[in-house]
Amino acid sequence: MTQLFFDIDAYERFEKTLREHPSGAFTSIPIMPGLMPIQGYQMIKRTTKLSHARMPESIMARLNAVRGDDERVKMVGVDVISEMVEQIRAIKTGDSGHRGFHFYTLNLEKAVSLIVEKTGLMQQDSSDSDEAVVDDVPLSPLPIIQLNGNAPLRPSSHSRTSRRHSSVGSDPHNRVIVGNRPLAHPEWEAAGQEAGVPAGGINSRANTLAISEGEGALGREATWDDFPNGRFGDARSPAYGEIDGYGVSLHMSVTQAVRLWGYPATRRDLDDIFVKHMQGQLAAIPWSEEELMAESSTIKPCLIELNSKSWWTVASQPAINGAPSSDPTFGWGPVNGFVFQKSFVEFFLPSDDWKALHERLSSPEVRESICFYATNSVGDFASSDSSGGLNSASSWTSTNAVTWGVFPGKEIVTPTIIEEVSFRAWSEEAFGIWGEWAKVYGRGSDSETLLNGIRDDVWLVNIIHHDFVDTNALWKLLLE
Fold first, then answer.
1. 390-400 pLDDT, tens per residue?
2. Under a CB-based contact definition with an 8 Å cutoff, are residues 424 and 382 in contact?
3. What is the rounded CA–CA span in Å between residue 314 and residue 426?
4. Strand ordering across the sheet containing 312-317
5. Phi/psi at 81 (nearest 5 deg)?
6. Nearest Cα residue to 458 out of 436, 430, 477
7. Residue ranges of the domains in the chain?
8. Alpha carbons 222 and 217: distance in angstroms, whole number
9. DSSP 8-state secondary structure symbol assigned to residue 3
10. DSSP label of 197
11. Where in the numbering of this chain does the MTHFR SAM-binding regulatory domain appear (predicted)?
12. N or C terminus: fewer CB in 10 A for the chain?
């Protein structure tokens, strides 16, 4: 099984090299190409960077043409991978035996299902064929139905033999939804879970594909997380989390780390590192290997001011009230939609500063308009859900959708969520990165002592402001 790739020519050269190897050991060994469906523009850019997989310019041009519409990016991705499947099938390099395909799904099923259906990779089951639905076979007699205690209604003597013409069976979706009792007539009754799924074998291949592609109530449950957002996604989603899988790591060598961040010896040195990252003078910080995103340019002065006073930011977003989904900076999702954002910021700050900030966040005039989560390296935890005390247990925890989109013909999509369970999981990694950074420098050095001391002192805090109409509300709260 190969690593993911998009360059068919490179794959063909690879297979030819194996098949023609002088030893003959690879003449008939099965080779399974590894393909990754394109789930999103930024996701595939990052994936190819991490895997060093070359993306042909022709494919990149097709993605660039629709980069502002996430739905179209997915559909172009389906076309691209489907074409690759057909091209690989056409490669003739000797007796390779039965060839299969492996899909790197990232736990997202819709695109894979569309590819499998489009390329015919899944052999059709006889029960799934169209003929099984429309054959002119006699219907079993309809049951006698009694309405409101009146005389039973009997079927007309002018019975129709074709399922295609039957008023009961003409539409496989047209069934009565019943509950609280077993299905007596499954040919025209459906349980609530089956609503919107074509009649027939519920576990048939056709129905399984239909569900994975988003059809019906079960389909909505299968594709509700179709716009994942890394660690800011819904923790219930199988696609939750970052795609690199590296865990606690600086993602670079010691030499690269020293070249980027030098030898910090004071808190002021750290302020400079974070501010330079905000200003675009540094390509990365230990918690983010990417430069500041374009949408953050609207809040850059606020972020610089926070970092200048040793409140070191690792994630943030501005408030947005109904930007078009086609907006080049803030837009995402299908066209003709609107996107919304609550402002939030996640940052480290000294424990003394946290005590004062916590008191302010808990004040009556502020607490109803914000939500916060905070923890330190030893696991002390506080949140706006807690009734009191740093370690108090709340009977419920809030889930904060901080990005959502409204699109024609779709339910509201909420790809960015901040909640306690994901914050706690991330905080362990975030504090671990302080330790990884300290290891770059020699044991007992000024830099190692500084970084380990800061890890033991600071709190990691995430604050969400609910007023997305007032774009400055969060920043006024933190800076005034």
1. 444 445 677 88
2. no
3. 12
4. 312-317, 344-349, 459-465, 370-376, 381-383
5. -70, -35
6. 430
7. 8-119, 230-479
8. 9
9. P
10. S
11. 219-478
12. C
